[in-house]
Amino acid sequence: MSENMFKSKRLPPRPELYWQEDGVPRDQINDDVYFSVSNGLEETREVFFRGCGLVDRWQAMRAGISASNTFTIGELGFGTGLNIAALRQLWREHRPNPQARLEVISFEGRLMRVEDAKTALSVWPELASDVQTLLSLWPVRAKGVQRLCLDFGMSLLIVQDEIEPALKNTAFKADAWFLDGFSPAKNPEMWSSEVMAQIALHSAPECVVGTYTVAGHVRRALAAGGFEVSKQPGFGTKRERMQAIYPTLPKPEIYCDPLLLNTERACPASVIVIGAGIMGACMAQAFHERGCDVTVLDKGEGIEEGASANPLGLVAPRLDGADTPQARLLIDAYLAAIAFYKTQNIGAWPVDTAHFSSSNEEIGRHAKIKDDPPLDTDLLGVLEDEGRQMGLNYLSSMAVSPVDVRSQLLKDINVVWNTKITSIGAVDGAQRCVTAIRDGQVFEYEADLVVIAAGMGIADLAGGEGLPLRGRGGQLEYAQYDGPDFARSKGHYVVGANGKIVFGATYQDSDGKAPEASDAARAENMLALDVLAPELKEKILSGKVQSATAVRAATPDQLPFAGRLPEFAAYRAHYGEDLRTGRALKPIDGQGFKALYQRGMYAAGGLGSRGLTWAPFLAQIIVADAFGGPVPTGADSRELIAPARFFMRQLKREKPKKD
Ligand SMILES: Cc1cc2nc3c(=O)[nH]c(=O)nc-3n(C[C@H](O)[C@H](O)[C@H](O)COP(=O)(O)OP(=O)(O)OC[C@H]3O[C@@H](n4cnc5c(N)ncnc54)[C@H](O)[C@@H]3O)c2cc1C
Ligand SMILES: C[S@@+](CC[C@H](N)C(=O)[O-])C[C@H]1O[C@@H](n2cnc3c(N)ncnc32)[C@H](O)[C@@H]1O
């Protein structure tokens, strides 16, 4: 597989499949089979499952919410998903305790169509229910990272890209590896010494590598990475197989990124989330699902208030014209949101959004996207009128009722309304203490971890100079609607679903508060309706039209932030002088560059006009960071949403002190 094939197009290639007479899929490019039909499943169980000692090692996991109750597996080559379906079956049968987690991260450069995987896996009826679950969540073809939320505490990250850059752009440590490329002779890119060096870098102490090959260069490359390599009896017709075990001693940590940190696991038993908007609700549910005791505190009177209480909102992608870390971030977030809302049984409806180009810049961008689309034709179409390109069609995007979704997410969680947080401190250095006022009385809450998801409220609680937030007020109009679900956008948007229609919205500077509803804003929204859905105007105006206003919290670079809250003073002390003078950064403790954080403090916000898209994805990122699991986006994309980025940029702009 040549690297150019990946780079020339934004959509990753599909495999070129050939079905053998025995029903086994064969890849024509690498001229090799995905598995053998006579013993493929048994080989998986022997080489990967028994070879990595999975069941015995799972039984040694300790119950509770701790790092040792999570087991992480990396896989090279997702292929038909056979290994994953069989792994789910094994995990279901041997999950050591109800809180135990299995995190799998699988790399694939040529994702198979779901119909092909279904045909391939149909030869194993004993895996039927596991196959069915996997197929129902099958990833979308797109470069980047997607997280499939399986059940029984098992989740699967699929990374789609050429193997070497994909490994270099992910941060996690595996307890076991399944090396399952095609044979080294036919698929050398999957077994190169660079790839094996990455396997070593992504291995936890005592990590075991399972593989069917004994090829000398693979053995030598793993040994060079620090693995203890030995030969074991092989499976079936193979005389030998290799075993590679990573040493027990922890490796010295190499710090290399002043923005990110994924090594200190917080594994909190208790979490306080400040804010019950869409961000707080997604956050609370994600920690609750991990078994944490979650409390949500909000100063509002109830769920029907604020930006996250608009009658309907649109979840549609923002697509960039080229394949950049930002473009992948936006796609990862969009696909995560769509997958998330699909699994909610309330408050979300698939709609096709006709998005019309609204400026010369957008016309140019849409033309680039048409020439080299980042999403497949089932998700992205082109709007044309008499051959003229008008914009893009976002197929299967979503109309969302934020109040219904939030109610559902918060239904099993302790939410305390009318409770305004005034400060956050530390108890004995370990726990966090939150001070709040309710009905004029002061209350204190303690937890292992606090997430500030307070919309514009983040500015007072954590921001200051370090997290610059700007208020952007907005008004929209809404009315009853009985037509088919639909959405259109061109700067403004109109969306109709579930008996309601919403159109707007205005976008104006605000002091951080929701603006008063105004006639001028209504006139602007009416104009938008004229442009986007003129055929509906008369009917809508014959009923009652109401206005809603709220404030969006936006950042200067229009991207949100999610992660640990920076220790701003430490950034200034360690990196300030070098950033101001443009010198290379000085390593900390002689070890490298690391992010400097306030213990147990996270923030997620700056969601701007796309909070419904960002929130589910950012919640996954924070939970992965807190538990030390693989993060569902590339490291270069994640840097773009690191909370410390604003402060580092600000330090760069400060003038050097004169002596
Ligand atoms: C007119 C308009 C239309 C929009 N349309 C869309 C759309 O179609 N699609 C889309 O994706 N996005 C849309 N947005 C943006 C979206 O609504 C926001 O991005 C999103 O609601 C932000 O969610 P949040 O949870 O971060 O903040 P919020 O919803 O503002 O929630 C923050 C919560 O924190 C609480 N809080 C604040 N300070 C404190 C404190 N000190 N103590 C306790 N609690 C506190 C608040 O009471 C609030 O409940 C729109 C926004 C507007 C204004
Ligand atoms: C033997 S198959 C994997 C079988 C799979 N584990 C299963 O359970 O069906 C090898 C996989 O590696 C993928 N692959 C091969 N070369 C690659 C490369 N350079 N980058 C990324 N993926 C690659 C192939 O597309 C193929 O899906």
UniProtKB/TrEMBL annotation:
Cellular compartments annotated: Cytoplasm
Domain (FAD dependent oxidoreductase) ranges: 271-623
EC number: 2.1.1.61, 1.5.-.-
Gene3D superfamilies found in the cross-reference section: D-Amino Acid Oxidase, subunit A, domain 2, FAD/NAD(P)-binding domain, Vaccinia Virus protein VP39
Alphabetically ordered keywords of this record: Cytoplasm, FAD, Flavoprotein, Methyltransferase, Multifunctional enzyme, Oxidoreductase, S-adenosyl-L-methionine, Transferase, tRNA processing
Catalytic activity annotation: 5-aminomethyl-2-thiouridine(34) in tRNA + S-adenosyl-L-methionine = 5-methylaminomethyl-2-thiouridine(34) in tRNA + S-adenosyl-L-homocysteine + H(+)
Family: In the N-terminal section; belongs to the methyltransferase superfamily. tRNA (mnm(5)s(2)U34)-methyltransferase family.
PANTHER family: SARCOSINE DEHYDROGENASE-RELATED, TRNA 5-METHYLAMINOMETHYL-2-THIOURIDINE BIOSYNTHESIS BIFUNCTIONAL PROTEIN MNMC
Annotated protein name in UniProt: tRNA 5-methylaminomethyl-2-thiouridine biosynthesis bifunctional protein MnmC
Source organism per UniProt: Hirschia baltica (strain ATCC 49814 / DSM 5838 / IFAM 1418)
